[in-house]
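Handout, section 4.2: multi-component inputs.
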Amino acid sequence: MTLSVYLSGEIHTDWRDEILAGCKAAGLDVVFSGPVTDHAASDDCGVAIMGAEPDKFWHDAKGARLNAIRTRHGIETADIVVVRFGEKYRQWNAAFDAGQAAALGKSLIVMHGADHQHALKEVDAAALAVVETSAQVVQILDYVLNGRLSG
Amino acid sequence: MTLSVYLSGEIHTDWRDEILAGCKAAGLDVVFSGPVTDHAASDDCGVAIMGAEPDKFWHDAKGARLNAIRTRHGIETADIVVVRFGEKYRQWNAAFDAGQAAALGKSLIVMHGADHQHALKEVDAAALAVVETSAQVVQILDYVLNGRLSG
Amino acid sequence: MTLSVYLSGEIHTDWRDEILAGCKAAGLDVVFSGPVTDHAASDDCGVAIMGAEPDKFWHDAKGARLNAIRTRHGIETADIVVVRFGEKYRQWNAAFDAGQAAALGKSLIVMHGADHQHALKEVDAAALAVVETSAQVVQILDYVLNGRLSG
Amino acid sequence: MTLSVYLSGEIHTDWRDEILAGCKAAGLDVVFSGPVTDHAASDDCGVAIMGAEPDKFWHDAKGARLNAIRTRHGIETADIVVVRFGEKYRQWNAAFDAGQAAALGKSLIVMHGADHQHALKEVDAAALAVVETSAQVVQILDYVLNGRLSG
Amino acid sequence: MTLSVYLSGEIHTDWRDEILAGCKAAGLDVVFSGPVTDHAASDDCGVAIMGAEPDKFWHDAKGARLNAIRTRHGIETADIVVVRFGEKYRQWNAAFDAGQAAALGKSLIVMHGADHQHALKEVDAAALAVVETSAQVVQILDYVLNGRLSG
Amino acid sequence: MTLSVYLSGEIHTDWRDEILAGCKAAGLDVVFSGPVTDHAASDDCGVAIMGAEPDKFWHDAKGARLNAIRTRHGIETADIVVVRFGEKYRQWNAAFDAGQAAALGKSLIVMHGADHQHALKEVDAAALAVVETSAQVVQILDYVLNGRLSG
Amino acid sequence: MTLSVYLSGEIHTDWRDEILAGCKAAGLDVVFSGPVTDHAASDDCGVAIMGAEPDKFWHDAKGARLNAIRTRHGIETADIVVVRFGEKYRQWNAAFDAGQAAALGKSLIVMHGADHQHALKEVDAAALAVVETSAQVVQILDYVLNGRLSG
Amino acid sequence: MTLSVYLSGEIHTDWRDEILAGCKAAGLDVVFSGPVTDHAASDDCGVAIMGAEPDKFWHDAKGARLNAIRTRHGIETADIVVVRFGEKYRQWNAAFDAGQAAALGKSLIVMHGADHQHALKEVDAAALAVVETSAQVVQILDYVLNGRLSG
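Output:
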């Protein structure tokens, strides 16, 4: 069994690298995908390729629709969608991804600190697991794949 | 043609009433649904009916899952989902609803002020209309139903 | 909003009547469906209409497939599926209905006593509400429809 | 043609090993999946990874939802779902899996002893084959793959 | 509960009228649909409306595709599809309708005499009921709707 | 049986009115929908409601996405989609609607003059009927509903 | 591009071998599947594995449902379904397969002699190609894969 | 991540070759498909394989339905559908393909010159990217796959 896992959400800490390293160390059969994590490229990709826009709304629209080619593909082909909410920013795109994953029947894992618990209650309620750390995500993938409780 | 419209998101201003009044005044054939907007009832419904929980996480889980019976039904049976982002709170549930609506192929209308433009770019990019006021939602519904530009 | 509710499971107590009476008393806009609750008719319907079978397996197969015309229709057209597990019998058909409801994305409410908690953990985990009494089901329907916490 | 087969249900006898050994001996092109069969791990996985719960209901909910990541993936990606009902326990999860498989249009094979015939009539009625032994499952897979009646 | 029933197949006896009369006599809440049963109109509708064709293949293609507007609509919106195989003709369109109904997950009732039993075994195997007479169809609809065994 | 029919395509002749009048005269049980046929309103609706755009591309994008709320709803809820290609303009939106209708499994009727035959061969090939006049559409609807060949 | 092709229908001539040989000779990238073509095994597989039945109806039911595991898998995973109607027998299973293929949106190729043209008009009308010979099927697959008209 | 890309539309310039060469040069993991681009073969394939037709309508119908086996397969299995509108011809098949892609939820990229902007506004409005050159398509695929802005 190979699991396809999409890693959505916060892009300013190295949580994705931690999960990849943990899964590699455990020898897990997982294929990862996720959004473009270069913040500047993600913001400007639309106008860089398709031409500048004087209005910020259309600048953003061009980029967001271009990024959607990648994110929709990742979510639609994933078995599991992990969505991490960090400490900063609005992160509405993370919740938006979680909503898409839920509606598509994907197994949803939500990752956030205790301070966001009440605000994320609707998202957590749709999840099959709610965790705080990258290590827990690795443990879950190890258990799902191998029935192994490594902790 | 009757349109079924789900009004998601912010619950602390009277934007829903404005839309309902506007549609009534214009004689539009629209049926509205939406979440429970009594904040206290929405937070406590789970434990009120199914028993208290000492742990806030499960208190919230019980309520959020119970509310999901209503919100999923509303979104799944809607032709159009309007999601409003207000000035306060995290509003992750609004973005989560928008993600569900997008994945289900619903026509999505997003309503927010200019200050949230950049943070909502992924949600706006999935929408068929982005507006600021309740009056604009009424105008859109009037146009969609009757081909009338009332402005 | 009208809710369509399928009442699956145990057929030897009057829990369905309690829910119907409770919803009627509360004036709720609910349409109910459910299996044939006449145990003898349900067991013998196949052979009664399509001819006797000497082998009990085919006697039961004829009846079960005939009953499936009604139960599938009820589950597929329901917004909410309530599944009650009683004190007696194997009740595998109740769990089978719950599995169908879950896979079809129906809102699932499970109703059972505390003694069945561990054995039903997979079914409960797929539910949006787990209750013990008919009165709680009525309260849930009242809340989902009207946002009212009658308790 | 490779067949993907999910082996659901009873975890206290070695029927899965018998099927795997039989298919291997016959050189069949089958890929198997199934639930975690370590009973203790399956019961405690949720709290082991995501933290202890004083209330047994939530202890079980955490585990059951975590196990659902694996079982849903297995059932959804299977061509054939085999569900075995053994002699002991309630086995509602087995019937729940069978219901999911039926609703998803999977080819369902049910395996049980004669004493459970009447209680399983609804599940059997949804199946394409009803058998008693592991050897019969191997014969079926051999026939489906190769058109060979090995008996 | 209203049932929508499509009556497919043989058009040279009055079995449809028998079922309609029987359901009316029993006061059943059923809505019927079916193909055009005027054989000449059904054969020639395409060329009558869209112009003559010298080649019989295209004469038939025009008619068959036009009839498909009605038959697909009937099958797709039905809860139950009844397919009757009579004594004469090839009746491949009846088996074709049954295949569509099966693939769409409709409840399938097959009606035929004992002499066709072996030739129809694949169709019967996909059905929830196999009967010989119109009266049995009425009894089934009465049972499915009202849980009543009128026989 | 009520048929829901979406009338897509050319908006500069009165073919829609002819079909409506013909169906009314024949007493047919048909409900019609279609795009906004006021050319100016259709072009400018987006900026009229949501604010002017200096760039024609975004002016058109706003309008086209707003019109999509109406056209998608019409196509998705239709039983039959009639697409008319007239003599003038590119009419790519008509072919685009036909593609959506085909992919959604709608019964497609295409209406055009003989001079467009070769250029429309892919669209015609997906249709269940190809006609030249409004009167033929009325005859088809009469036949589909009533089995009547009025010509 | 690899094409997956299901070869349904008549099992008493060597048309399947002709197609396989033709595709091999042309070096086409095609994977074939089909029903069990050993008539005796296909008729008796159910009772051979799951036990004898005194009643021919259940003898056939057991076999037909077992064969359905293979045929449904083949049809559901195919890109193209070729259905051949031969000279003998009722061949209702062939038309039943064609109906399933049509409802699942598969590309349907029908193969039959001129004498069956009128009786198969509904099946032909749902097909993307109607041919008489195995060589034509090979030519079609060659064209679809390589854009080559070998004739 | 491998992307599957269908290249629809104009067949008289070498834009497909430019995209293939550009992706090869950039080392992108993309698999391409598209229609048969030999205009004569595409027009005549039906009659070449299945026999001549005196009537141009049926000549074209045979070819268009045969080509649909390839084009539907390509669109349905693609992650991204690129549709190019050139300078000449009606190109209704291109818009028809775009409509299919949109209804199937594919990521749509539209490629055309500025002069077609207004006429293509409905198609552009359904797209995630609108470009003018093959080089831009390569840049988009590079960005979607690798997050790289090569420009």
